[in-house]
Every structure is written in C-alpha cells, then in structure tokens.
Design brief:
The complex is a heterodimer of chains A (about 110) and B (about 120). Chain A is an all-beta fold and about 110 residues long. Chain A is about 0% helix and about 50% strand. Chain B contains no helices and eleven strands. In chain B, strands 2, 4, 5, 6, 9, 10 and 11 form a seven-stranded mixed β-sheet that branches. A four-stranded antiparallel β-sheet of chain B has the order 1-3-8-7, with no helix packed on it. Chain B is globular, with a radius of gyration of 13 Å. Chains A and B meet through strand 5 and strand 10 of A and strand 5 and strand 10 of B.
C-alpha cells in the first residue's frame, strides 16, 4: 500500500501569509496527486489535480508542485476563506489520503 | 449542475447491516466510476470502495473487504453500498464521490455525506 504523509499537521498563519504544505508518498506516484480543501461539516473540494493543474474556479493563489514522492501545495497569500483542512491524495495505485493539515488563524 | 446526495445513515448496533445510497444528478452517471470514502469523527479521509462505470470492476479497502458491497443502478442514477457485520470502527461520515473521466483518477465531485454510527 502507498502511504501518504503530510506535514505539518497544523499550521498557524495570518491573512496575507505565504503557506506551504508538504505531502510525501512512500513510493513514486509520478504526478498522480490531488489536493483537496475541507471545511468543518462540509465535503472536500478539489483544488489541484495531477500535482500541478488548477481545478476550474479555484483561485490562482493556490498552486501545486512536485512529482515522484515529494509534493507541495502553496497558498501565495492566505485569505480568510482559506482557513480549512487540506488533504493530499494519491491515485496512482488505488487511492490513499494524507492525514490532513489544518490551517488555523495565528 | 452535478449533485450527489447520500442517504441511509443512522445508528446501528455492532454486527448489524446498513445500506447507504447516493443519488446522482446533473451528469451522465453511467459514464463515471464512483467511489465511497469515509471520515471517522475528527479523523482523515479513508477510501472505501470503487465501482467502474460498467460495474464490471469493484475494489475495496482491506478494512471493509468481505463485509461491504458496492453497487450501482444506472437507470436510477444511484450508487449504493451494502455494509454488513458492522464494527464500531466503521463509525464515520460516508461520502460518495465521482471519479473524473479516465481510469484511475481523482475525485471531482463529492456529496455532503451521511453519518453512520455503530454503537450498542
């Protein structure tokens, strides 16, 4: 099974900050990685697919990079609506999620 | 617009069964593989099961294999999962999700989930 490890688990930041979340796969997954945003009581929302492709309608302050085993999600300037939990997901072999990164207000 | 609406959750004692459904609308349901994903209270996301667009292929997480059965009814645009021999660790919000076109892809639409609580 492919394991996905996200860091950090929690991130405290202020509006306007640049935020980076890392996701590491236990083996190479090429670019088979997606990022989701989830707010309390809500379904996850697709942000990034194939490691770096921005989903339609998602603000351009969100970006993704990486391939193989190391991936990052960056929010260039954190906005009030961005305080949420973010999950990575590999879809190379079955489907596995990272444990999540909660972005909270500093 | 694409909508996925889950139903069927509730409180059930350990060892009993429950059937969840997901009603799809706003897209050609028969053209998409569909998934169940769950989230235990305060925890992360766990993939549960997938059914291919033609229902020929089904796969399950090891944690539910042999106990859960995924199915689809394309005429009624409904995805289902039959959950037998439920355990307390199956307690979670269960989401249905659509897999974007193509094989082995990510999930572009999710329902809002239905809560299953396994407790005596």
């Amino acid at each position: 099974d492919i394991q996905m490890t996200q860091s950090p688990s929690t991130l405290s930041a202020s509006v306007g900050d640049r935020v980076t979340i890392t996701c590491r796969a236990s083996q190479s997954i090429d670019n088979s990685l997606a990022w989701y945003q989830q707010k309390p009581g809500k379904a996850p929302k697709l942000l990034i697919y194939k490691a770096s492709s921005l989903e339609s309608g998602v603000p351009s302050r969100f970006s993704g990079t990486g391939s193989g085993t190391e991936f990052t999600l960056t929010i260039s300037s954190l906005q009030p609506d961005d305080f949420a939990t973010y999950f990575c997901q590999q879809f190379n072999t079955y489907w596995t999620f990272g444990q999540g990164t909660k972005v909270e207000i500093k | 617009q694409v909508q996925l609406v889950e139903s069927g959750g509730g409180v059930v004692p350990p060892g009993r069964s429950l059937r969840l459904s997901c009603a799809a609308s706003g897209f050609s349901f028969s053209l998409y593989a569909m998934h169940w994903v769950r989230q235990a209270p305060g925890k992360g996301l766990e993939w549960v099961a997938v059914i291919s667009k033609d229902a020929a292929n089904k796969n399950y997480a090891d944690s539910v294999k042999g106990r859960f059965t995924i199915s689809r009814d394309d005429s009624n645009k409904t995805l289902s999962v039959q959950m037998d021999s439920l355990r307390p660790e199956d307690t979670a919000v269960y989401y249905c999700a659509r897999e974007r076109g193509g094989s082995h892809a990510y999930f572009d639409y999710w329902g809002h989930g239905t809560l299953v609580t396994v407790s005596s």
